[in-house]
Amino acid sequence: MNIIYYHPLFNAQEWLSGIKRRLPQANIREWRPGDDGAADYALVWRPPHPMLANRRDLKAVFVLGAGVDAILDQERQHPGTLPAGVPLLRLEDTGMSQQMQEYALSYVLRYFRRFDEYQLLQQRQEWRPLDPHSLDDFTIGILGAGVLGQSVARKLTEFGFRVRCWSRGPKQIDGVESFAGEAQRAAFLDGVKLLINLLPNTPETVGILNRRLFAQIAPGAYLINIARGAHLVEEDLLQALEQGQLAAATLDVFAREPLPETHAFWRHPRVTITPHIAAITLPQQAMDQIAANVRALEAGQPPAGVVDRQRGY
């Protein structure tokens, strides 16, 4: 069994040795330009076009992250980047759900308890108690009901929040009101006081966080975007903040990363920025899942995390 690996940022040796420990029978190597040797499996993140193009011997391509939008975008721009008919697999959870829960909960509570506003009052040396929000009128809406969206929804219900989810297809989540499809999106947005975006990045969801959507949620609502920067129309967000349609926004992802130093978000008093750290790939958990999937494929069993290339997730 031959495995090729490519990631422009990760420690290659950690991954090569880690996969070897889990799959002792495998020959695993870091792919370099000019390497067209045999490969049964590929572990990649934003692979150069020559790495996978024309490889018909692959049994699967593993994306080293939860999102597959980057590699699918590469395929759209450079057809043949992904060999036709070869299964594409994403990481499912591998510790990301816990991280997303922590991130979402921390900022939900920050807005619910109005700590963001108290921080601004402190900067003005102003002692002024604020009327608290009520659980009864603080409905949280989550765009996206995949593994991460469902995990965040369940955690928030544990704190007594009223939570609703919207997804492309129907989902059943205990304690969470579910909406599905375009026909139910307006009903989902109506009355939402805090919106969390966890949608996959597909051609259909690009720019979904726009002025029309902001006008449909509760006046003075909050936004937390922990999916992809492409979902957000940045000028529409700034306008919604200026007009008071949105009270504040927390953004972990951006159309351009790192965020340029001159960007208006850096200086905006009601925008909180984090550098794409809401949930990062945890190597040990990720390698456990990849190894389990390789063993399943070798045994002729279905693996977890197979991507529907048409849907984009």
Automatic annotation (TrEMBL):
Molecular function terms, GO-annotated: glyoxylate reductase (NADPH) activity; hydroxypyruvate reductase (NADH) activity; hydroxypyruvate reductase (NADPH) activity; NAD binding
Coiled coil: none
Originating organism: Serratia ficaria
Residues covered by the D-isomer specific 2-hydroxyacid dehydrogenase NAD-binding domain: 106-278
Xref: HAMAP family: 2_Hacid_dh_C_GhrA (MF_01666)
Active site per the UniProt annotation: R228, H276 (proton donor)
EC number, as in UniProt: 1.1.1.79, 1.1.1.81
Protein location: Cytoplasm
NCBIfam families, A to Z: PRK15469.1
Function of the protein: Catalyzes the NADPH-dependent reduction of glyoxylate and hydroxypyruvate into glycolate and glycerate, respectively.
Protein name as annotated: Glyoxylate/hydroxypyruvate reductase A
GO cellular component term of the entry, any: cytoplasm
Protein family according to the UniProt entry: Belongs to the D-isomer specific 2-hydroxyacid dehydrogenase family. GhrA subfamily.
Any single Pfam family the record assigns to this protein: 2-Hacid_dh_C
Highest taxon of source: Bacteria
Broad enzyme group: oxidoreductase
Catalytic reaction(s) noted: (R)-glycerate + NAD(+) = 3-hydroxypyruvate + NADH + H(+); glycolate + NADP(+) = glyoxylate + NADPH + H(+); (R)-glycerate + NADP(+) = 3-hydroxypyruvate + NADPH + H(+)
Alphabetical UniProt keywords: Cytoplasm, NAD, NADP, Oxidoreductase, Pyruvate
